[in-house]
Amino acid sequence: MKAFASILCLLVAVNFATANPQSAIPAPQSNPPRWEKLGERKVNFAVDRDEILVTASEGRFTALKILVKKGAIHLHKVVVHFGDGSEQEVETRDEIRAGGESRVINLEGNRRVIRKVVFVYDTKNFADKRAEVELWGRH
To answer: Which of 2, 7, 102, 108 has its CA 20 to 30 A from that of 123?
Structure first.
């Protein structure tokens, strides 16, 4: 009887050791981050300062990026104004060509409510087309 109990304990131990513990627990469903267009502006041919007021339906964001169309720009800095009154200033000094985009700007504190975003930039386009700048936020 002792031998039978020992064999049974051994079989149970082997069964637990070889079982996949993840198969019994369903994997959590995580939604991939999604990007939402927050606004756009046309750039003048000199140094310009523009603001985009953020009125997104879901106002909490983790990052920003800027897309540029029709002409190149030199993006000097971005200042993000949050819902709690604090600010995050990002010196960029990025050259962004027409059809290009800035690097992803991660927001301090994660999932922040954005009130507005201020850009300082100038155009690098010497043609007749003014660059268009789009602001995108990642949830």
So the answer is: 108
Read off the tokens for 57. Answer: 């339906």
Distance CA 96, CA 54 (A): 23
28 domain-assigned:
no
> Structurally, how many domains does the chain consist of?
1
What the block records as the tokens of 16 is: 């637990």
CATH at 57: 2.60.120
pLDDT, mean over the chain: 79
Does residue 18 carry a pLDDT above 80?
A: no
Backbone angles phi, psi at 110, to 5 degrees: 60, 150
pLDDT digits (tens, 9 = 90+) for 87-113: 999 998 889 999 999 999 999 987 889
CA-based nearest residue to 126, from 58, 55, 71, 77: 71
Domain of residue 74 covers 33-138
Q: Is the pTM of this model over 0.85?
A: no
Per-residue pLDDT reduced to its tens digit, 28-78: 556 777 899 999 998 876 777 889 998 765 568 999 999 999 888 889 999
Query: Does residue 13 belong to any structural domain of this protein?
Result: no
